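Q: I have 590 residues here and want to know how they pack in 3D. Can you give me a structure?
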Amino acid sequence: MKTPHPLWSLLGIGGQGCGILFLPFVVGLCASAVFEVSEVAETSGVLTFVSLVFILPPLLLQVLGVLVKVGRERRILREQGGLRLDRTLASVHRHMRIVTPRGWGALVTGLWFIVLALSAKWASLGLLAVLSLLLFYVVLGLSSFVSAFLVRSFANGLGRDSSGIVRELSPAVVLSGESAEERFHLSRVPVPPGYTLLIEDGNVPQLHTESRYAVGPGARRTRVSVSGRFRHTPRGLHRLGPAAIYYQDALGFTRVSVASVATATLKVLPRFKRLAIVDPPRSKLDAPDVLTRPHRYPTEDPFRFKEYLAGDDTRRIHWRLSIRTGRLQVRLPETREVSTRQVLLLLDSYLPAGRVLDDAVGMSQVLDHLVETWLSLADELQERGDKVSLAAAVDDGEGNIRVERVEGHAGQRRWQDLGARACWQGSHDLPRILDEVDGGLSTNSHGVAVSSRFYSPPAAPLGGDSFTWVYLPPLQALGPEEPSFLRVWLAEGAQGRSKLGRLFRLPGPVGSDEDRLMAQLSRGWQQYVLYQARRRLRLIARSRGDATLKALLSRDETVYRLEPGVGGGHRLVGLVAGGGRSGAGKRAAG
């Protein structure tokens, strides 16, 4: 998680502290300067004393709780070697931010009614306003007590064998499109009366699912489990968590952060798609390229026969010959030529580091098409008898990018595991991948790259007896151009309500966090960022796509165009046939 700038943390800390401590007095002084308040001026000293009695203890308890929790986090950061000023300030701000937007609304509303009562000299309204402020500060004091003392017992309880919060996925590995469920198991977790334990996690945007669960005081005495299903499971390695855990009072005025724990990883494997391969133009060599389907011709060799023995395949009995000879005759199996070609399948997921790589969030579906084609080609070639290897720059499971190679005989599950961990990256272009895979292509092997490059391919030949490109033009991959964002925002959805209308018609149940204006604006901003990313990618694809395709066609290497989603699968259309070692290979040797 990115650490905010220290200035923002300082502003947040000052805003929280000053808002709670000084805002009532500032409003009172401003009101006394504007309105005639001589009737209450005599009791100003008593009011100030009562206000401090209700304001200072919650604030002191809150400061004590912040010191305890920040001190614990500083010790952990010091042990990890990551103790810095910006992280310390961010920790202080996170633990001081216990007043919710609803709580700030209650405080501001109470102060506003005090101003109205002073201006109208309405004592009853002033009494109600003061009672509402006292209620707010009482709740704040209880939450500060929870923050200072009960949070420590919660943290200690998480380390016991009989207590804690466990997050699990069922199943943790699924195929793309299959359903997956997450579960939180809570064992003897302390929840004070009048408070609710909240578990929240925004999850990765690709899942289209936010985790949000509430647990009452019953979790202290027994084991409680909460669960939910993901709405969408696209291909990829999705890291979930750490989930944020809070205590929230019954009125929703305060929310005390406890910990950020409970992580999990959901691995969604890609599916194999049906491939329709259209032969490229006539090759310059006697042998076709590695993707061309071999044609079967009738043999002119005479069949051989033998007498039937128990256990032979009865489907091979030649009845006419058996009738003539008086004994059952079985046709011997025809000889079959077995391919011994070495084929290395490369997944080109390289994007230049910077703006293009940052905008890759807008083209996750493009990489899905490439991975599906990559795996389906491996299945197709291995079924023909070729010796296939797959190589790609993938996530190693720890967030690092490294090149991995899987042999075809390792099994399709290993292929799919490699495809699930493939991601857009800016560190390993094709030459570097080849260098890390046994030093590149040998003279007795063939290379196939599945790519959707925005920029020209590497200038140097990539070696091997032949090299084939399966190219998905990025402009075609991004699909039809989206309308303007304003039209998207105003467009009606499946329920007949525009996104703008949801600001007033409340998309969730009454009182839910989804109904908050800031939450809806935040989701709208995320959609706008995605829209702008795809727009920038489309501009690059429109300006560079044709040049990239021309560069591929001029390399004397075989080029196929990938057309995803044709007939429920993918189709490869041959554009040009390469010259093998008579062309690119000779240049590599030279």
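Q: Anything worth noting?
A: The CA atoms of residues 74 and 88 lie 7 Å apart. The radius of gyration is 34 Å.
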